[in-house]
Design a protein that fits this description.
This protein is mostly beta strands. 1% of the residues lie in helices and 51% in strands.
Amino acid sequence: MRSLLFVLLSGATLFARGQFPCDVSITITSPTCPNDADGSITVVANTPSQYFYIWSHDGTLQDATATGLPVGPYTVQVFDTSGCFSEIDTVVMPPILAPLGTITATNISCAGMNDGSVTFTVDQGPYTWEWIDDPTITASTRTDLGPGPYGVLIIGGTCPSFVATELGDPAITIDGQSSYCPADPPDLTTELWWGFQPDEYVWSTGDTTTSITAAIGTVGLVDVMATDTSIGCTATAELFLTMLDPPTVTFSAPDSLCLRSPGTAIMLSSNADSLVWHWGSDGFSNEPYPTITFDEPYWQPITLQGFDLFGCGSAPIPDSVYVRPRFPATFTAEQVPCTPGIVVEFSSDADSCAVFVGDRLVLNQCSGFANVDLERYAEYDFTFYSTRPDHCDDTASVHIDVRTAPTAFIPNSFTPNGDNINDTWPGPLDIPDLDYQVQVFDRWGRSLWASTDPDEKWDGDNLPVGVYVYVINMRDSCNPTAEIKRQGFVTLVR
């Protein structure tokens, strides 16, 4: 017999009736054999006390141990003179016995063919054995068998041992939801039984695959015929489909929109608890009146579904919106070097166009080149408008700084204190690097810092607060032979 210790938290259930639980656990010994009645349960006192016991299966038993028990459930109440109380529910389990033999089966080839077989192998004994369905059979292998269970009783061990198997007609079934919502048509998958190995499938829907997704609206019987062409064996299965009544919704959408221009879809009627809109490639909303836009031109889809509180939804109600393309207002504007003139290049297939500098109309062409003389050096905003009869217009803008002299911002002080504001000197220099040189001197004419890179800055590192002298040499980008020289004072402040 085998014993197993069950602590109260894992192997039994305690119920306290207002008192505190008793500090006890139990051990269970399974019967020697599954049908024997020699199991036992023992209540183990973890804390010494004078305990009393009431067993559900035997009202006269008052000991801590119950013996002569078959497999089954048992309850024992435990209490003591100090007032503890516990009610323990537990189960005597059958013993775990290794089988004394093995049995294997060869499947029936096709439904109606009694050509299955089973083979029994007994462990080294000495053991005796017999077929349960026919003890007169002495062969360990049986052939020409039809569907049914086949088992062997083995005698001679500690307990009788049983091994069994079963044969069945090769068959096919359909697995899938038989009732479905239109928003979620069921996937129907074939399952094969008893060794059936078909290589051809024909569904009543016309499909020839092992699984299908039922079309929305499919109701009634759906069947499949599967065939193992190597032996000519055929099996069929069927499933009755029912489509649940979903909510109903109707809506309207704009007939057309401009590309990337907003429009509104309108839910006209609905008895749904929630809505799901989809449009274009990734548009989505749950609102009754969503704002819709499209990033691709021409005909684009939009659908609406209604769902009830249980998640049953309607099939997507489809519509489409014609998205009118925009002809981009594409242009470039570049300064003619060393002049206030601008060369503008246009590229638009729109019907009409306009170019503004600030709020002044300067051109009205859609393609090609044009020269604009701005007459003076300054910063300008160019705006190019392209328009169409269907109002799918477009706009593009560019900002231009028109100048001919080198741009050099040379502050008269800087504060290298690490706050990222005015920490270096000089400021922005938009000048050619040809023959560029900057030098900083102290008041005695000693060079402290120099550079030939317009992007390099002086940080005044390790120098005291004070006034320093600078000299900057540069060339005029419009007159490369003309040298420009700037000199002055810069104050280092910390």
